Amino acid sequence: MAKGLAQINGITDRRSLMEVIAGMHSCADFPFFSAAVMSDMADSDVNVLYFSQSGLGMSDRDYYLNPEDSLLKAGYASYLEKILGLAGMEDAGKAAEDAMTVENAIAEASWSSVELRDVLKSYNPMTTAQLKETYPNIDFSTWFRSVGMEEQDKVIVSQPSYFSALDTLFNTMDIEVLKHYLATQYISGVCQYLSDDFYSAWFD
After folding, report:
1. CA–CA distance, 86 with 124 (Å, rounded to integer)
2. What is the Rg, in whole angstroms, of the alpha carbon atoms belonging to the chain?
3. Residue 29: left (phi > 0), alpha (psi -120 to 50), or beta?
4. Contact in structure between 180 and 77 (CB atoms under 8 Å)
5. Angle formed by the axes of helices 2-9 and 14-26, to 10°?
6. What values do phi and psi take at 132, rounded to 5?
7. How wide is the angle at C-alpha 190 spanned by C-alphas 184 and 194, nearest 5°?
8. pLDDT for 106-127, tens place per residue?
9. Does residue 32 come out as left (phi exceeding 0), alpha (psi in the -120 to 50 range) or beta?
């Protein structure tokens, strides 16, 4: 765990941010967005790379946005503070607050479960050049290089408005806040493999 947290703490700009994100994606952990190769919905004989919204610890945007889920949201924030403290993070409360700021922003931008069922709306093919032009603050060039994948003639962006919001988030939010979010995502993802204190927090 220490090596992963050191990499996150070493982030200084959007390029190094994307290098860490890509590394987490390569380990099947998907902060901010997910990437997966699947059959092209327009041509089942071809596989294509899909980019989709991701990165919510409570999985569904409604848990963050619905007032009736406020106790659940508070409990989740307490969990983040606890695991950050167990990991030795200074001012774990502030770091957890920062992580929740990012997750709230992601939740607000995320498509609802109803929107996600709209197959045609979710099928938005682009070239890699168009992807980089449309979302200039998401360093996709670094992402492709870091995961060891050639840039593609065709990718599918499943939720364009989400990636527009993410592009703005990367451009405007303090890098330290983004790092705290990544730290919670990373620690939470490995809790079940760590000591009993981490496992118990994750299980609860």
Report:
1. 42
2. 17
3. beta
4. no
5. 150
6. -70, -35
7. 115
8. 999 999 999 999 999 999 999 9
9. left
Q: What is the pTM of this model?
A: 0.94
Q: Are 175 and 92 in contact (CB under 8 A)?
A: no
Which residue, among 142, 135, 138, 192, has the nearest Cα to 160 in the 3D structure?
135
What residues form DSSP beta bridges with 40? 43
H or E element in which residue 161 lies: helix 160-172
Q: In what order do the strands lie in the sheet with 33-40?
A: 33-40, 43-53, 155-157, 125-126
In this structure, what token pair is assigned to residue 145?
């290089």
pLDDT digits (tens, 9 = 90+) for 155-202: 999 999 999 999 999 999 999 999 999 999 999 999 888 899 999 999
